[in-house]
Amino acid sequence: MFKTQWNFLFKNKKALIVLLAIALIPAIYCYIYLSAMWNTYGKVDDIPVAIVNDDKSVNFRNKKIAIGKDLTNSLKKKDTFDFKEMSYQKAEKNLQNGNVYMVINIPKDFSQNASTLLSEKPRQMKINYHINSGQNFIVSKIITGGATNINQKVSNYVTTTYSTVILQALNGAQNGMKQAGTVSGEMSNQVNSPQLKAGTAQLSSALLNGVAKLNTISTRNKNADQLSAPISEHLTDINKVPNNGTGMAPFAIALGLYVSGIALETMFDGFDPHKKVTSAFSWWASKASVIGVVGVIQSAILFLTLVRFNNLVVSNQLMLLIELLLGSFLFQSLIFCLSTLLGGIGNWLISIILVTQVVSSGGLYPTQLVNHFSQSMNQWLPMTYLINSLRSTISTNLNIQSDILIMIAMIVFFNTLLLAKFKLSIKHDVINI
């Protein structure tokens, strides 16, 4: 029996190829998944970040200060993120659409406030950060850490600048005191009255000069506080995600629907009829009715689970239900189309498409952080459009008309291929009853 079985496999090359292909699935799965995400945090320099520099330069101690310009130029040379300078209106639009993941807004009084830190009324410098965690929850955490580094960079710059100013003031005072000491010594030798009067005036001038240098520095507690923390950070999240579950929901939903489609295809025969058929449409409709009912039931159960048990808050619950239905029909259509048209090879492709969608759809990491192959596959994968649509309904509130239309077009396309397969099967009489 053992020998017979292996002899059959070696004689049936198709079955042998299918088994080998199945054995390759784990290796291909891991290769695609791990190679795409092998060094995502090493590719953060590809994350687009907008800089809006409204800062106006000022003159301070006979020196031009333009901290906003210096900071912008410095950041653009760094490889921390992909910094792009643009107008405020363009930056906010790109943030809303997901074309950038953070906007750094440097106010017009940034350098002006920096020049007051040693005055009687010091003003803290402010940087405004706008993020969109609804677009990608993981990357929002990455760039928030980047904001802290930027604040530290500006703080170091300001501290260095003012340390120089303080040292210059102290040096001026020291010179004044030294001059006063010299005059005092001269006054103690061959001293007379046309000389005492002149020396006294010179001593007074030197002391006043030293005091003037020191008086340029305010020594109140508020000045010390502002020098120790010159930067204040204002972080605004335009589509705040309340928790990790909400942020990951679009990807989890899409993955669950695809896996369900695989399970349905394994358990339900989507091709062989139970009697002689003459109409390809009625044959397709009989199979599609069963598959479609399962899709409706699973979508309804998933909807209730998300809303009632996971407490997922969305602005439009009806749209969420429609997206679940479309996602179910889309993945079912794709999976049954591949398995029906290509048999074992189709089933093999279904598994490969699964892992490709996991890394390329933007559900986990943004496409900027994955490899080039995964980036190029993004627009060709059904899961991309479902995740975009779900993400909009759950958090970003973007227009999803194009995503919905693309999903509908894909459903129609896959089912058209299935219908064509049924027609060819009737024509060539290859139906097993």
Task: Explain how this protein is built.
The protein is an alpha/beta fold and 433 residues long. The protein has two domains: 13-39 and 242-428, no CATH class; 47-237, no CATH class. Helix content is 66%, strand content 8%. It has helices at 2-11, 13-36, 67-77, 88-97, 110-114, 137-187, 196-215, 221-228, 244-267, 280-309, 317-342, 344-360, 372-377, 382-396, 401-428; strands spanning 48-53, 58-60, 63-65, 82-85, 102-106, 125-131, 231-237. The strands form two sheets. A five-stranded mixed beta sheet has the order 4-1-5-6-7, with helices on both faces. Strand 2 and strand 3 (63-65) form a beta hairpin. The chain is elongated, with a radius of gyration of 35 Å. The model has no long low-confidence stretch (mean pLDDT 82).
Helix content: 55-70%
The biggest beta sheet is recorded as: 5 strands, mixed
Low-confidence stretches: none
> Gap between N and C termini, in Å?
30 Å
Secondary structure category? alpha/beta
What is the count of helical runs? 15
Strand order of the largest sheet: 4-1-5-6-7
Radius of gyration: 35 Å
Strand content: 5-15%
Order of helices and strands: HHEEEHEHEHEHHHEHHHHHHH
Q: Compute the number of structural domains.
A: 2
Name the overall outline. Answer: elongated
Mean pLDDT: 82
The count of strands amounts to 7
Task: Please provide a brief summary of the model.
The chain is α/β, with parallel strands linked by helices. It contains 15 helices and 7 strands. α9 (244-267) packs parallel to α11 (317-342) and α11 (317-342) packs parallel to α15.
